[in-house]
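User: My collaborator sent over this chain with a note saying "see what the structure looks like." That's all I know about it. Can you take a look?
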Amino acid sequence: MSHPADDPLAPALPGTLPEALRAELVAFRRDLHMHPELGNQEFRTTAAIKDRLERAGLRPRVLATGTGLVCDIGTVDGTQGTQGTQGTQGTPGTSVGESLAFRADIDALPIPDTKTVDYASTVPGRAHACGHDVHTTVVLGAGLVLAELARQGRLPRPVRLLFQPAEEVLPGGAAEAVECGVLDGVGQILAVHCDPRVDAGRIGLRTGPITSACDRLEVTLEGSGGHTARPHLTTDMVTAAARVAVDVPALIARRVDARAGLAITWGRLETGHACNVIPQRAELSGTVRCLDLNAWRQAPDLVHAALDEVATLHGAKSQIDYVRGVPPVVNEAASVQLLHDAMVARRGVDAVEDTEQSLGGEDFSWYLEHVPGAMARLGVRPPGELSSLDLHRGDFDVDEHAITAGVELFTAAALL
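Assistant: Without extra context I'll predict from the sequence alone. Here is the result:
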């Protein structure tokens, strides 16, 4: 949507995307969708992004992890820059520490694609069911637009494009990307995440926590076992496992402020093989989610204590594998305001809505441990639709007008 003639920002912001670029980006997203790759295996995806950026005259650099890449655009004086990931000085005029970073995650999920579209996944048991193909295309598109503006001397600050691998792999590829130096020279970082509850062409914003923390929990219980005729002579493992499954989440809920939203949810419980044999072993797997950053930091100790108490009460020995995942994404106020102003400048006040905190986890949070930033919810629901296809489903798809909205959001943010 073009700006009205009397909009004071109109001279500073380019108009809508050229139709040729919009069509190219849709085709790029569909190509990624047809060839999904799991975390740390995104070699084809990385090569496709690298090739397109190089054809635009940029110099992307593959991360030391082997997949994912970063690419710097522009300098403070508007010339084309080559600032490196270690915060070194690039071409004259580069302002180290002033870069605005845009992050995309590039991996897919290990689930089958069940859609009947001509761009459905060609890889059995793999699908872009979380919208990472859209995130990648948005950042790529913004990079192509901003590279041209930099050549014209119209880019007021350096921009870094960050294409991150392994977001779906706990504790997330972001932590390793930070170790690779992707934030060196970055002063602020922004991202989007597809939201099927928001119409395409709109974004959802929230200051403060917008996702929850998410950790993985594996528990093994062991005991003597025996005959079901004599449970009093055994460790009644089925009962012990059942009590752990029920009582531990209840105990945790009473040991932290309810507003922290600390919750254990089990996804797997296995024990026993015969109806008349009390087993010697049981296994439980689940997730620990938390809305509050401070409570998340206390969670491992609280969970260990509760598990030991309940297991001991029922005569079982417990082994606990608590895998740290990601903290909540906590949006910084100034970065949220930048996203708000950019979307309003591009599409008007009706294109922005408030969003609630999600219980989903996102490793974008690791970047925010180091630099200020924010994540926006990118609407992907076809306008007028009353229902939506949720994330992490094999039939998940998007209204591809969301790509244009995302590119416009990021380009406007870089220009404000």
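A starting point for your reply to your collaborator: The chain is about 30% helix and 25% strand.
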